[in-house]
Design brief:
- With about 180 residues, this protein is of the alpha+beta class.
- It is built from two helices and ten strands.
- The chain is flat and about 85 Å long.
Length: about 180
């Protein structure tokens, strides 16, 4: 007697289905109820007055982490030129994830080398204004510039040595990036 492969598969499949229908693996579970849960311990409930709500759009500074008390941001020359000793920059030296400090508030800024507009894409992570609007970045000579979605300058920074950049936002706030 000769069987075809498709016939053998069909017979095997029918045998599996038939044996699966006659299982009693789950029949013992139908009669069992789960054990009752123990109630959570009850404690003392107290009432206190809540503080008044903040004005719309206001933020509570205590919600944001702050820069360490010993952190300092180098001041830039008033004419916007590079500080003495600032190193020439390359995109590869800037690419990565940075800890940003803006007026005492900290956040993260991702600076991948993904082409975007006239520079590279940027991604602020839980940053305060105006740094929350960073969309791109680029380097030219000694300067790292952070841009908004319209290509407007949000901040200019210069290398302070090692893995640190210091500068100012377009509205004059001190900003630093460190790794």
């Amino acid at each position: 007697m000769i069987f075809s492969k498709s016939g053998l598969v069909a017979v095997s499949l029918a045998a599996l289905v038939a044996s699966g229908c006659s299982t009693s693996r789950f029949s013992s579970m139908d009669d069992q109820q789960p054990a009752p849960l123990q109630p959570a311990p009850a404690g003392q409930v107290t009432a206190n007055q809540l503080p008044p709500p903040a004005a719309p759009g206001a933020t509570d500074p205590s919600q944001f982490p702050t820069a360490p008390a010993n952190s300092q941001v180098a001041s830039l020359p008033p004419d916007g030129s590079a500080p003495a000793g600032a190193a020439d920059l390359t995109a590869a030296a800037v690419a990565g994830v940075w800890n940003a400090s803006v007026s005492g508030q900290t956040c993260k800024v991702a600076t991948p080398q993904t082409k975007f507009g006239a520079g590279f894409r940027a991604g602020p992570l839980h940053c305060p204004a105006p740094i929350d609007g960073i969309k791109s970045w680029n380097v030219a000579g000694k300067q790292l510039t952070l841009y908004d979605e319209n290509g407007g300058t949000l901040a200019r920074l210069y290398s302070s040595g090692g893995s640190k950049f210091d500068g100012q936002t377009s509205n004059g706030q001190a900003i630093s990036l460190t790794r």
